[in-house]
Specification:
The structure is a single chain. By secondary structure, the protein is α/β, with parallel strands linked by helices. It has six helices and four strands, in the order βαβαβαβααα. It has a four-stranded parallel beta sheet, with helices on both faces.
Length: 174
């Protein structure tokens, strides 16, 4: 439904509209999200989810269903073994409650704000994994990567592109 390079949003049902709204707001701060409409959980669009998540490097599932045993669990099984951070937004494993749809969506965190926060968390985890990999390369071959030089020039070594501190990057190379 929408293409982006930073994160994949996988949603079903009413949550597709929520995912699109979050993607629009994230685009305003230069975070591009691919939005997939997973209209069926079984059969699952394994190829679409897998290829998009690998391409963007992280994913967030959004469903108005239990977080366990639904879309999020299916995506987690599919991406197991890949270095792709996954955040799952869904209902907790608890008894149902009564209220208006808007009240229940807010109570259970099915909001644009929660999606935005989950996308930022997934991207931070992706950046941390990338930095870990680069630091492992440093240990084997002590060189300074261009991203460290650029951060040092800008006075932001240890701060990623989203303003988050990465403690793995805080060590200065001499």
């Amino acid at each position: 439904l929408r293409a982006g390079a930073d994160c994949t949003l996988i949603a079903c049902g009413q949550m597709v509209t929520l995912a699109l709204s979050a993607a629009e707001r994230l685009a305003k701060i230069d975070i591009g999200c691919t939005v997939l409409d997973c209209h069926t959980i079984a059969p699952l669009d394994k190829h679409g989810i897998f290829s998009s998540a690998l391409q963007t490097g992280c994913a967030v599932t959004i469903e108005e269903h239990s977080a366990s045993g639904g879309l999020g669990s299916s995506a987690a099984e599919l991406l197991a073994g890949e270095n792709v951070p996954l955040e799952i937004i869904g209902l907790p494993d608890a008894f149902g409650e009564s209220g208006t749809p808007a009240e229940l969506m807010g109570r259970f965190g099915l909001t644009v704000e929660r999606v935005i926060l989950s996308v930022k968390n997934a991207i931070a985890r992706k950046c941390k994994a990338t930095c870990n990999s680069l630091h492992e390369q440093h240990a084997r071959q002590p060189i300074e990567h261009e991203h460290h030089r650029q951060q040092r020039r800008n006075g932001k070594h240890g701060i990623d592109a989203y303003g988050l501190r990465n403690p793995l990057c805080l060590t200065e190379k001499k």
